């Protein structure tokens, strides 16, 4: 059976999301390998903008939250009391995230390129 355009678009969007999650994990891992300070969502968003055009800061935050739910990263989450804006800081790989990165294989949630 032939897929509809909507199904093809949904598959493309899912692949794009999986790849972006993989890039985030690589950025966090690379920063650790270079013994850098733990990053925050602004730093990751800035790096993602250099790789992908049109990625929003809220999208990066959502992907980080997804990766936390999947058990691959951990971070501190705070709301700015003045603006109410969410800020994610001290982003790091969990033990599961490190094992995942060391496996060098993607899965249904994250594409490692």
Helical percentage: 40-55%
Strand content: 5-15%
Annotated CATH architecture: Orthogonal Bundle
Let me know the CATH homologous superfamily. Answer: Winged helix-like DNA-binding domain superfamily/Winged helix DNA-binding domain
Total DSSP helices: 4
Mean pLDDT: 93
Strand order of the largest sheet: 1-2
Q: Write down the secondary-structure element order.
A: HHHEEH
- Termini Cα gap: 30 Å
Beta-strand segment tally: 2
Integer count of domains: 1
Task: Return residue spans where pLDDT drops below 50 for at least 5 consecutive residues.
Answer: none
How is this structure best described in words?
This protein is an alpha+beta fold and 113 residues long. It starts with a helix and ends in a 10-residue tail after the last helix. It has a single domain (5-103), classed as Arc Repressor Mutant, subunit A, CATH 1.10.10.10. Strands 1-2 form a two-stranded antiparallel ribbon. Helix 2 (41-51) crosses helix 3 (57-69). The chain is 55% helix and 13% strand.
What are the defining features of this structure?
113 residues; alpha+beta; Arc Repressor Mutant, subunit A; two-stranded antiparallel sheet; 4 helices; 2 strands; 55% helix; globular
Summary, kept brief:
With 113 residues, the protein is of the alpha+beta class. The protein contains 4 helices and 2 strands, in the order H-H-H-E-E-H.
């Amino acid at each position: 059976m032939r897929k509809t355009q909507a199904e093809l678009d949904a598959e493309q969007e899912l692949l794009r999301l999986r790849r972006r999650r993989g890039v985030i994990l690589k950025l966090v891992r690379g920063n650790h390998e270079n013994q850098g300070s733990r990053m925050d969502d602004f730093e990751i968003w800035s790096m993602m903008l250099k790789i992908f055009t049109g990625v929003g800061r809220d999208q990066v935050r959502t992907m980080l939250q997804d990766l936390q739910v999947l058990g691959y990263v951990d971070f501190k989450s705070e709301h700015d009391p003045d603006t109410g804006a969410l800020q994610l800081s001290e982003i790091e790989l969990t033990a599961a995230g490190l094992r995942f990165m060391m496996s060098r294989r993607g899965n249904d949630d994250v594409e490692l390129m």
